Amino acid sequence: MIKKILWTVVGLITALLVIGGVFCLIDGRSPQAIIVSHALTRATLEDYDKGKGDQTDKSTVEIPSKVKFPREMRQYKVGTMQVFHMEAQDDSKPIVLYIHGGAYLNNFSVMHWKAMAEWATTTGCGMVTPNYPLLYRYTASDAHPLMMQLYQQLIKQYSAKRLVVMGDSAGGGFTLALAQEARNDSLDLPSHLVLISPWVDVLGGDDALQENDTFLSAEVLRKVGTDWAGAMDPSDPMISPLNGEMQGLPPTDLFVGTWEIFYTDIVKTHEKMKASGLDVRLHVAQKMGHVYPLWPCPEGSEARKEIAAIILQ
């Protein structure tokens, strides 16, 4: 009797594995990617209304204890902004300035720390990452001067050509806006930009892709983006760098999934960069969602390896 039950359980598990495997073959994504996409929670207008005006102090964070960097990560302040800084393995390795995402509302996630630690380990690069001012205590006009101050410090400390500036989501948009601002101010530019699902137009987002995006809400983000702009016009390139000039920017790699609402805006960014004569590459992952290179799945792992190779170019 027990043996029968055991064989029945084994049969059911086998059947489920076969069905799951067939589904993944048809779907084209790994099981892990499917799980991650369904585990993500999309913010609602109700969430936005509850959170709007939250004055929580987000100026200090700690690296999660389970994340280990290969070299000492020191901390210091640029003005009121907390900065984490780890030197490179040696002077031949690049320095990455990483600007985290989070809709200009949220601090670093564990995925950010894990990805940065992985790149620091596999490439030997240095890593600098700021905890920049966030909503709703601050707006873009508070954050940008501090970020420019940090950037100027870094190009004095290191050769600008040794710098790679990277960011995801809001941090990707911030990265592009920062590069445009540095170019406009005739500062030395970094060797490369890496933009992971960048939020390049705070009033954008493709409503036609909303059904497939399990993480982002275009309706909510337009409100949050307008809040981030504060007294500025949300269409200003400092807020929405898709509207800025692309000419003269460093070589750039953009990563995007076809199932995220930013896909159309990121394709437009690539087209505008290409038309401006930039050395730019667009990496498109079919049926993948927002910031998929940070996901704990084979597709994310492969993208992180690609980014590691870009860092070392």
Describe the structure.
The chain is α/β, with parallel strands linked by helices. It has two domains: 1-30; 40-311, 3-Layer(aba) Sandwich (Rossmann fold). It is built from nine helices and eight strands. The protein has helices at 2-27, 31-39, 45-51, 110-123, 140-157, 170-184, 218-229, 263-275, 298-311; strands spanning 74-78, 81-86, 95-99, 126-131, 163-168, 192-196, 252-257, 280-285. Strands 1-2-4-3-5-6-7-8 form an eight-stranded mixed beta sheet, with helices on both faces. The longest helix has 26 residues, at 2-27. The chain is globular. The termini are far apart.
Question: What is the topological layout?
Answer:
Layout: H1 2-27, H2 31-39, H3 45-51, E1 74-78, E2 81-86, E3 95-99, H4 110-123, E4 126-131, H5 140-157, E5 163-168, H6 170-184, E6 192-196, H7 218-229, E7 252-257, H8 263-275, E8 280-285, H9 298-311
Parallel strand pairs: 3-4, 3-5, 5-6, 6-7, 7-8
Antiparallel strand pairs: 1-2, 2-4
CATH architecture of the largest domain: 3-Layer(aba) Sandwich
Q: What is the global morphology?
A: globular
CATH class of the largest domain: Alpha Beta
How far the N terminus sits from the C terminus, by CA atoms, comes to 63 Å
CATH superfamily of the largest domain: Alpha/Beta hydrolase fold, catalytic domain
The percent of residues in helical segments reads: 40-55%
Oligomer: single chain
| Rg of Cα set | 21 Å
Roughly what fraction of the amino acids lie in strands?
5-15%
Question: What structural class is derived from the secondary structure elements?
Answer: alpha/beta
Using DSSP, what is the number of strands? 8
- What is the CATH T-level topology of the largest domain? Rossmann fold
What's the number of structural domains? 2
Q: Give, in spatial order, the strands making up the sheet with the most strands.
A: 1-2-4-3-5-6-7-8
What low-confidence regions span 5 or more consecutive residues with pLDDT below 50?
9-25
SSE string, helix = H, strand = E?
HHHEEEHEHEHEHEHEH
Q: Helical element count?
A: 9
